[in-house]
């Protein structure tokens, strides 16, 4: 299956542009809509597959730009906290050190050359993978990564099949900068998925991957295109017998691991991907059809502020530079207004750029390096030989040019952002309620060798974005002007970059935007004064040194992440000629030194005359024209429709910013970081001695040991596992306080979210250094209570926990004392309320398919508050009569944290039992010693029930007629809404068919849902999206509702079909899908089942993932009674075992882990057909289904015509009324169901 459009969209430029908004309090989305939707949307079984299934993809998307801005290879989870400085902008392999430069000559020897082998690679301590960089005879360079040696197996450990993730990616140095027709590179990427000469079926690639639990995707960037896939394969450690002759002539046999075969899945996938670059079909009929998918993708993005702002930035640049290109393309551009076919241009583009010298391949596989190399030679070795210079070769630098690669690649003399484009103040009206200032400075490209040698932007960005007391962030935050601030490279290409300072403002801040800009340039002037003062050189070197040390620490203990992300990222990095192959994982980040002259040259770029200011302000929609200030008035960007206006910055204004008369005396540079850890000892090694002294290779048996409960008292359970497998000096400490107080009403939930935001705002400056150094915290509010955690290097983690919990408590006291006692805190209270209100209202403007998913939850869950309920607590008539107060907020937080609750706690990682108990004691001392604190009684535990949709017969009783006949539709219940944005062009539906409660389904039913969805996803995508071209977003997924309900959902978003038509087409596809299942051989379904088993048993790839896996099982039990509170840590294995079929070649028990009879292939097929006939088929008397519709504004008349019709709900009161007629599902979870006898 192809991964999510939304997930792919969230990388690169979008990550950079959304940095501020993510830091500025998007927690509501995570703890309100986001977390509640995930509870309702069936994302519980398998995170990866669920996320991949959230929405469909075309085989790729075009990304918005920031080259190499995705989290770098060396990034640990703690680095997410470094994003306000520079850590998230840095990339592994960024090296320009000339002594390390590398450029492999063309391989004309006719055989594969090894450019670097495993012993030469510089790797993190935990990385036991094997690496090899080769150059095939056809000149293609490949990085091979073997994962077979990452664990050791105890002698007495039973041999067990294990699931392994294998992946590959191809990176092409060609993107939309190379378009001869707008959108051509993006369109070429789409077309490669639709059949090759060797595999002509248009879905052959996806079908093959699906058999092995895999997915694929691609993205088109400014200068690059990237194709990648992932597989979940199952394998045993294979043994080969070696016979040797001893000195006395006797023969002896020994067994050794035999990994000299690549899996059928990996080699088959490589072969299919290789054909993209050997002989794609580009069939005329598919070309004509796929243009519609491009057009739909473009239309989906027209109401996205991220896309609108990006294209506006392109418009603001030099239109003679390829940065200005319209990269997505649409029907109009690709067909020249329906007058020509783009096929000839496609062929020319592919022949020009899709050559071996211009490609890089990365492969991660569970096989030896030799086996992987042989597979690559058999597949990608079939590409024809080619040689040439790839894009990274700029023109000769101009005389006295400090940064030689700057402006040297595209149209010498045509800068992307020159004086004509800079020195401007631009205003843009966003779709969502937003207030933001962005300062963009034209900068040297990140690839420039002089620039990369010392990375001057890193220390400058670190200081600009710092959040400790005295910094710009701290001052503006205390003044109530900002929600967040960030700095760093926003755009980076091979001949220019944009360095940015981004400020997310409050309404108060926007009203004082001139003051905000003045302070920003004062802060920049202060940094320049220090950086350019020779006497301050030691201080700058210390700043640089601590950033370097934090990188060294991060790299030394970097864990292996997702293989797919690794392949996708490293394939691009392989083009970096400044990095020798053996240093691809680290670059020169451990060798760089501070260079004051290069820093001075970079700082010279950070001046008003080299700057463009962009104001994003939704309040401008109400603005009146200002004479002579914006001479051209409001204009419209042609591709995405953003409204903007422009004026020149006056010389007086630029001079005052360049040479501020004074610098606010409250501003001061941050001190050095006192939280950088120095103790990296491992608890598991204390007192441990082995025969050979080697404790570095982890044991599989240690990995499989679940956490144990070390404390069980009324109201509190503590789970603990000291890590012996991942061997990194990090720990995770998690607490969940279950209490009914927060979700008692919309008002209480609003207040607790405000408390959470105030806490985060308050802690920013005090824990910022700790977050930079690799320790972080998180506090979230859920319907079941409050969760908080600390994680990172364990040396000072308990101190951070104590600081967090102490402030959680003291903040309550200050809130209770009111605004007169704490006026500054009152400002933070008002700011938190404003940001929560803004984000709550903005949710209405989300993509229609997301709104449909939220709306369906309103009907599917018994106790749920409506979006407008939250808004009414913060603005409007009722909010004015009974406003939210600081005191009320403090009292609710006090009740939630120190009142009646039960606590689940979990400590895992480099933390022993005594330290786990100490962590628990910290929380007990703060929250359990209060007078009102007592354990929550079982009857008080918050519970959430899943509503049962009516069958056709039940609907007749409710509505007094057969609504399927009278309404001419196939589902008895419909909830409809009109998209909030007037510019929204898309309709959407979520078609939900309930498949029973957990107690009804048991393990076997849950497994069948997973299997059915696994097969259905590709079928729906191929039919509804590829063939019928209904829309770019098509997906299916298991829908789990809070309270024990399960279902099957189909999501379609379309600009060409109304919700009624989409429902008809979905129903037609469901009928077709049943026929497809009937026609499939039982052996084919068995293969699909094996793929699902591999997915469900997919191994965690790092400590944080394993922690979250265990924590998920523990927290799953928090709302159940005492008899059901024991976590089933092997739950996923039990679900998977229901799909492991009888096989005479394997030693399998006759029954599954759950006591069910193990099925045959024929038995599984029949069980699946019976499941579809019982729950899914339209004529089944047991079917329970609904549709959540969202109409675009142009179809409002259709919405209004349906209002009041039986079974069509058009408002939240309609839902509340209808739910009175519905039953609910039992609460008991499927993993606690006893197997009945007989």
UniProtKB/TrEMBL annotation:
Query: What does UniProt give as GO cellular component?
Result: cytosol; mitochondrion
The alphabetized UniProt keywords are: Hydrolase, Metal-binding, Metalloprotease, Protease, Signal, Zinc
Q: Where is the composition biased (Basic and acidic residues)?
A: 697-708
Q: Which residues form the signal peptide?
A: 1-27
Q: Does the keyword Oxidoreductase apply?
A: no
The record's InterPro entries line, in alphabetical order, gives: Metalloenz_LuxS/M16, Pept_M16_N, Peptidase_M16, Peptidase_M16_C, Peptidase_M16_M, PqqF-like_C_4
**Which positions fall inside the Peptidase M16 middle/third domain?**
555-872
Annotated ranges, domain Coenzyme PQQ synthesis protein F-like C-terminal lobe: 1011-1111
GO annotation, biological process: peptide catabolic process; proteolysis involved in protein catabolic process
Under the heading PANTHER family, the entry gives:
INSULIN-DEGRADING ENZYME-RELATED, NARDILYSIN
Name of the protein described by the UniProt record: Insulin-degrading enzyme
């Amino acid at each position: 299956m192809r991964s999510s459009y939304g997930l792919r969209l969230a990388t690169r430029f979008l990550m950079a542009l959304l940095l501020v908004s993510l830091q500025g309090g998007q927690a509501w989305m995570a703890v309100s809509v986001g977390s509640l939707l995930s509870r309702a949307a069936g994302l519980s079984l398998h995170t990866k597959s669920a996320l991949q299934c959230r929405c469909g993809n075309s085989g790729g998307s075009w990304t918005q730009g920031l080259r190499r801005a995705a989290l770098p290879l060396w990034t640990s989870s703690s680095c997410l906290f470094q994003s306000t400085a520079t850590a998230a902008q840095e990339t592994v392999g960024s090296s320009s050190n000339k002594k390390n430069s590398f450029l492999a000559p063309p391989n004309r020897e006719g055989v594969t050359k090894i450019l670097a082998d495993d012993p030469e690679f510089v790797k993190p301590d935990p990385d036991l993978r094997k690496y090899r960089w080769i150059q095939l005879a056809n000149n293609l360079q490949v990085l091979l990564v073997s994962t077979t040696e990452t664990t050791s197996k105890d002698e007495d450990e039973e041999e067990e099949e294990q699931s392994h993730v294998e992946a590959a990616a191809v990176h092409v140095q060609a993107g939309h900068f190379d378009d001869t027709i707008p959108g051509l590179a993006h369109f070429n990427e789409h077309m490669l998925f639709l059949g090759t000469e060797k595999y002509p079926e248009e879905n052959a690639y996806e079908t093959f991957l699906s058999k092995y639990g895999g997915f694929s995707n691609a993205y088109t960037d400014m200068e690059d295109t990237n194709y990648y896939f992932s597989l979940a394969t199952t394998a045993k450690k294979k043994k080969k017998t070696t016979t040797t002759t001893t000195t006395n002539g006797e023969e002896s046999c020994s067994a050794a691991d035999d990994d000299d075969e690549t899996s059928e899945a990996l080699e088959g996938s490589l072969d299919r991907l290789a054909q993209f670059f050997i002989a794609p079909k580009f069939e005329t009929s598919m070309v004509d059809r796929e243009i519609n998918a491009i057009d739909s993708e473009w239309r989906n993005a027209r109401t996205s502020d991220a896309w609108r702002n990006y294209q506006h930035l392109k418009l603001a640049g030099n239109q003679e530079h390829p940065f200005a290109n319209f990269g997505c393309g649409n029907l109009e551009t690709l067909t020249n207004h329906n007058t020509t076919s783009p096929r000839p241009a496609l062929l020319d583009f592919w022949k020009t750029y899709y050559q071996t010298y211009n490609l890089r391949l990365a492969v991660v596989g569970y096989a030896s390096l030799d086996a992987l190399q042989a597979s690559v030679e058999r597949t990608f070795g079939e590409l024809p030989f080619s040689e040439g210079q790839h894009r990274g070769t700029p023109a000769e630098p101009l005389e006295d040019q400090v940064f030689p690669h700057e402006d040297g690649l595209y149209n010498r003399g045509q800068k992307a952002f020159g004086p004509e484009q800079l020195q401007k103040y631009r205003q843009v009206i966003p779709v969502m309620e937003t207030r933001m200032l962005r300062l963009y400075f034209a900068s040297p490209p990140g690839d420039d060798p002089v620039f990369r040698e010392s990375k001057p932007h890193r220390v400058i960005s670190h200081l600009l974005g710092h959040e400790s007391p005295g910094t710009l962030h701290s001052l503006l935050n205390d003044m109530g002007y900002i929600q967040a601030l960030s700095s760093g490279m926003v755009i980076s290409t091979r001949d220019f970059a944009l360095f940015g300072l981004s400020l997310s403002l409050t309404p108060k801040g926007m009203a004082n935007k001139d003051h905000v800009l003045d302070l920003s340039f004062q802060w920049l002037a202060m940094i320049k004064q220090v950086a350019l003062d020779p006497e301050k050189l030691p201080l700058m070197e210390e700043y640089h040194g601590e950033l370097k040390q934090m990188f060294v620490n991060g790299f030394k203990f970097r864990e292996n992440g997702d293989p797919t992300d690794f392949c996708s990222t490293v394939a691009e990095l392989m083009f970096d000629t400044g990095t020798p192959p053996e240093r691809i994982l680290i670059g020169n980040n451990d060798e760089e030194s501070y260079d004051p002259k290069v820093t001075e040259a970079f700082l010279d770029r950070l001046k008003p005359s080299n700057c463009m200011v962009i104001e994003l302000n939704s309040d401008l929609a109400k603005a009146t024209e200002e004479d002579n200030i914006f001479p051209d008035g409001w204009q419209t960007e042609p591709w995405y429709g953003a409204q903007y206006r422009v004026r020149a910055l006056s010389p007086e204004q630029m001079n005052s910013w360049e040479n501020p008369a004074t610098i606010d005396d409250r501003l001061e540079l941050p001190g050095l970081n006192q939280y950088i850890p120095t103790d990296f000892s491992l608890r598991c090694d204390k007192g441990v001695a082995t025969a050979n002294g080697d404790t570095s290779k982890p044991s599989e048996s240690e990995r499989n040991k679940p956490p144990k409960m070390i404390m069980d008292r009324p109201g509190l359970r503590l789970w603990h596992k000291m890590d012996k497998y991942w061997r990194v000096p990090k720990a995770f400490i998690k607490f969940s306080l279950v209490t009914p107080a927060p979700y008692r009403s919309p008002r209480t939930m609003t207040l607790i979210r405000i408390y959470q935001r105030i806490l985060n705002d308050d802690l920013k400056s005090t824990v910022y250094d700790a977050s930079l150094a690799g320790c972080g915290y998180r506090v979230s509010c859920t319907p079941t209570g409050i969760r908080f955690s600390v994680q990172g290097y364990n040396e000072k983690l308990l101190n951070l926990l104590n600081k967090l919990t102490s402030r959680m408590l003291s903040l309550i006291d200050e809130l209770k004392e009111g605004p007169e006692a704490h006026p500054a805190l009152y400002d933070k209270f008002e700011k938190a309320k404003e940001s929560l209100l803004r984000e709550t209202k903005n949710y209405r403007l989300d993509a229609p398919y997301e709104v449909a998913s939220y709306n369906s939850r309103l009907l599917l869950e018994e106790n749920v508050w409506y979006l407008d309920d939250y808004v009414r607590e913060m603005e409007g008539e009722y909010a004015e009569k009974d406003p939210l107060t600081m005191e009320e907020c403090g009292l609710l937080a006090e009740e939630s944290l120190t009142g009646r609750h039960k606590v689940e706690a979990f400590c895992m990682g480099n933390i022993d039992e005594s330290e786990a108990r100490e962590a628990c004691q910290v929380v007990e001392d703060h929250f359990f010693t209060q007078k009102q604190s007592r354990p929550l009684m079982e009857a008080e535990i918050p519970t959430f029930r899943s509503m049962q949709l009516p069958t056709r017969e039940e609907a007749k009783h409710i509505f007094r007629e057969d609504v399927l006949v009278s309404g001419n539709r196939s589902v008895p219940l419909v909830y409809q809404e009109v998209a909030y944005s007037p510019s929204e062009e898309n309709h959407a539906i979520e078609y939900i068919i309930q498949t029973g409660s957990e107690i009804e389904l048991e393990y076997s039913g849950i497994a069948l849902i997973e299997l059915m969805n696994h097969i259905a996803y590709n079928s729906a995508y191929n039919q509804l999206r590829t063939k019928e071209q209904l829309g770019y977003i098509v997906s299916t997924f298991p829908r789990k509702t809070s309270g024990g309900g399960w279902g099957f959902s189909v999501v379609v978003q379309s600009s060409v079909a109304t919700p009624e038509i989409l429902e008809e087409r979905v129903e037609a596809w469901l009928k077709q899908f049943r026929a497809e299942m009937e026609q499939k051989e039982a052996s084919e379904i068995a293969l699909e089942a094996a793929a699902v088993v591999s997915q469900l048993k997919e191994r965690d790839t790092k400590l944080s993932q394993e922690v979250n896996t265990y924590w998920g099982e523990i927290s799953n039990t928090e709302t159940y009674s005492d008899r059901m509170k024991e976590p089933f840590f092997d739950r996923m294995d039990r679900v998977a075992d229901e799909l492991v079929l009888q096989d005479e070649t394997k030693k399998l028990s006759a029954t599954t882990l759950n006591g069910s009879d193990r099925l045959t292939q024929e038995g599984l097929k029949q069980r699946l057909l019976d499941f579809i006939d019982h729950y899914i088929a339209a004529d089944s008397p047991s079917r329970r289904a609904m549709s959540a519709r969202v109409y675009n504004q142009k179809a409002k008349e259709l919405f209004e015509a349906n209002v009041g019709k039986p079974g069509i709900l058009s408002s939240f009161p309609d839902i509340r009324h209808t739910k009175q007629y519905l039953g609910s599902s039992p609460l008991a979870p499927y993993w606690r169901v006893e197997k009945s006898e007989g």
